[in-house]
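Could you join me in thinking about how sequence relates to backbone shape in a protein? We need material for that, and I hope you will provide a protein of your own picking. Once you have written the record down, we can walk along the chain together:

…
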Amino acid sequence: MQKIIIALLLLSSSLIYSQNNETEKILNEGKLLFRIEKGSWYGTDDLLARFKTKKDSVGGYLSYETADNKINTIFFSRFDPDKILIRYEFDSLPKPEPIRIDTLDHNATDLEKNLISLRQDAKDRAYENKDKFFSFYDNTSLNFIPLITDKERSVFVLTGPQVSGIVLLGNDYKLSYDMKNEFKKKEKIHNSILQFPYTSEDKENPTVSTIHTHVITEYISSTDICTLLLYKNYVEWNQHIVMSEKEVSIFDLEKESLFTMKRKAWEKIYNSENDK
């Protein structure tokens, strides 16, 4: 297996592209979700460090991409969601230091109002969980990422760890809405949740690559890509592989590139290595 992973590392490094429109969309969406969530991480860290007196007044937060490709992170009021308590502006690829911080109370923009409405609806549906659709695990929390594009409105729900040293993939969802913010449907992206440690317990044999299987979808998900990018500076492995019935997705964390191949081709490589 180790030889196969090394061969795929070489293959994916020489063939850095997505093979079709679907995987191109997945890669771009995953990178956008990563940048949005990274802005939320940095905004939260800054608020807790510098504006502790505002903490109890915060009803929630979210991040979004602006027209000039920056990332805005907002914290809205617990008492009036249309009131923005703090607004951060980050670079397109957020760094810990924001470009600008606005601590004056402002009314939310129309876009922000829509994003807040979507987030609140998704959060209510998840925690009410009337049909037991959503799963909850110890030492985890749900993160709600609203996203508005020209074509759709949705909220992605990711499960994050509340303990250090692990990466969680799975237990993620997508809620879809119409252009009037009316709920349409919800869907599971994975059927389960998986846990990957940052490093191998065997120091002489560090983890080169991690792998999991997909039952619901053929390719790696945008939420997988988002999570892998969020933790790429913490883990020792540089490649994650997703296997489905017909496809194999190979994501390079360092290059942030996605390569896909047919499952039959993968198995041919596997069989040829085992025959040596």
